[in-house]
């Protein structure tokens, strides 16, 4: 299982929106320029985030995006699901029912597929973990791992671009 790089771009960009004043949304042009990614690509990601209710779009010359919820209410899983969709990682094709005994002997399957049950359980544990990690948590973690000057320069970049 692999999530697209769109999830990473989304999480990074959402962190930039946390400290931005409510009345100063950040535009896609500024976000894409800062990240070094095309506006078109980032627009597609933000369209999905908007549809999921994670961000809201502010129209106009000084428009852009802002968080629709508090950072405490937005989990990693919310972002992953918005960008990637809710398709399960493991997709059981119920191949056991095509096995020799079922096919040739007329046996009927009596139990759920154990492999599918294990995979679904593992996926749910991962979802639970990702639901526990919020944008607020991420922002606090970044304060500990990114040098203070870089965090300040990032905030200045976006406050300058919204003036």
Automatic annotation (TrEMBL):
GO molecular-function annotation terms? DNA-binding transcription factor activity
Q: Which NCBIfam families does this entry report, sorted A to Z? A: rrf2_super
Question: What SUPFAM superfamilies does the database record attribute to this sequence?
Answer: Winged helix' DNA-binding domain
Name the InterPro entries on file.
TR_Rrf2-type_CS, Tscrpt_reg_Rrf2, WH-like_DNA-bd_sf, WH_DNA-bd_sf
- State the species of origin: Gottfriedia solisilvae
Instruction: Tell me the Gene3D superfamilies matching this sequence.
Output: Winged helix-like DNA-binding domain superfamily/Winged helix DNA-binding domain
According to UniProt, the name of this protein is: Rrf2 family transcriptional regulator
One Pfam annotation reads Rrf2
According to the lineage, what is the superkingdom? Bacteria
Its lineage opens with:
Bacteria, Bacillati, Bacillota, Bacilli, Bacillales
Q: Which GO terms describe its cellular component?
A: cytosol
């Amino acid at each position: 299982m692999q999530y697209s790089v769109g999830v990473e771009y989304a999480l990074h960009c959402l962190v930039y929106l946390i400290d931005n004043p409510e009345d100063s949304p950040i535009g896609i042009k500024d976000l894409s320029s800062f990240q070094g990614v095309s506006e078109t690509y980032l627009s597609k990601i933000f369209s999905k985030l908007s549809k999921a209710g994670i961000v809201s779009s502010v129209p106009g010359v000084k428009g852009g995006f802002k968080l629709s919820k508090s950072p405490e209410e937005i989990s990693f899983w919310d972002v992953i699901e918005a960008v990637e969709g809710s398709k399960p990682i493991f997709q059981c094709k119920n191949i056991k029912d095509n096995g020799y005994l079922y096919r040739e002997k007329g046996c009927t399957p009596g139990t759920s597929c154990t492999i599918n049950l294990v995979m679904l359980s593992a996926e749910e544990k991962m979802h639970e973990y990702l639901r526990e990690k919020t944008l607020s948590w991420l922002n606090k973690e970044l304060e500990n791992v990114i040098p203070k000057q870089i965090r300040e320069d990032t905030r200045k970049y976006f406050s300058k671009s919204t003036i």
